[in-house]
Amino acid sequence: MPQSTWDPFDGLSDAQVEQLSAYESLLEQFNRRVNLVSPESAQRMWNEHIRHSLCLTRRSFPAGSSIVDWGTGGGLPAIPLAIAFPDITVYAVDSVGKKVRAVRTFARRLELENVFAWNGRAEEWTGSAHFSVSRATAPLADLWSWHERIVAPIDADSSDHWPPGLICLKGGDLSVEIQELHHEADGVAVVEEGIYPLLKNDHFREKKIVAVTRPPSPSGDQ
Ligand SMILES: C[S@@+](CC[C@H](N)C(=O)[O-])C[C@H]1O[C@@H](n2cnc3c(N)ncnc32)[C@H](O)[C@@H]1O
């Protein structure tokens, strides 16, 4: 297998890797009772779920900012991101109560004070956040409409940071989804980055990071 040029674990401290390892154990343990990830992929939890979620650390979120994870399931990517970025606030939203209860338990056991899990439909969440993230939950047009309803403005002008918007993990051919997004949300910009060229791991051949933003209008109106 060719060498990877980047690995999301490289930038983490030993304590953060230990926390992720404790999260992996909890996910495995709870997955026997609650369907948090598919049983087949549970064997490969570290690579397919945790490393994949950590691909969203390709860039950072500004200290003090907040992100909402739509359809968090067992806390993916919410919990890995909360561990990687202890100075942001992470809201984890899911419509299935037992998954949200599991995420609350994970946050408590991992002593993560920056994770808040909420049970209900994304369309009804009453909070707000600077960024949205998501993995394997809904088409881009839905995710974007959820994001625009709750977004709080932020200045994030450093190229080290994600541009304010929706940053999600997707797989396969996205052309129809992107077309539908443009149809629903005129003027948004979509940037796709393949994960395989970064990680050189076969599991990620079809996987992408997709960033959706709304560039400021030339007149300065939002
Ligand atoms: C395929 S799972 C992915 C879970 C997690 N993001 C992951 O990558 O493992 C999709 C999750 O989205 C949740 N979901 C789907 N539609 C939703 C909605 N409208 N509001 C809240 N949660 C939703 C489901 O309950 C489910 O837990």
How do the helices and strands line up, and which of them pair or pack?
Blueprint: H1 14-31, H2 39-42, H3 45-54, E1 66-70, H4 78-84, E2 89-94, H5 97-109, E3 115-119, E4 131-135, H6 140-150, E5 166-171, H7 175-184, E6 189-194, H8 196-199, E7 207-213
Parallel strand pairs: 1-2, 1-4, 2-3, 4-5
Antiparallel strand pairs: 5-7, 6-7
Bound molecules: S-adenosylmethionine (SAM).
Task: Describe the protein's architecture and organization.
Helix content is 35%, strand content 18%. Helix 1 runs antiparallel to helix 4. The relative contact order is 0.15. It has a single domain, classed as Rossmann fold (3-Layer(aba) Sandwich), CATH 3.40.50. It has a seven-stranded mixed β-sheet with strand order 3-2-1-4-5-7-6, sandwiched between helices. It is α/β, with parallel strands linked by helices and 222 residues long. The structure holds S-adenosylmethionine (SAM).
CATH superfamily: Vaccinia Virus protein VP39
Strand order of the largest sheet: 3-2-1-4-5-7-6
N- to C-terminal separation?
A: 46 Å
**What's the tally of helices?**
8
Q: What percentage of the residues does DSSP assign to strands (E)?
A: 15-25%
Query: Bound small molecules, which ones?
Result: S-adenosylmethionine
List keywords for this structure.
single chain, 222 residues, alpha/beta, Rossmann fold, seven-stranded mixed beta sheet, globular, binds S-adenosylmethionine, cytoplasm, methyltransferase
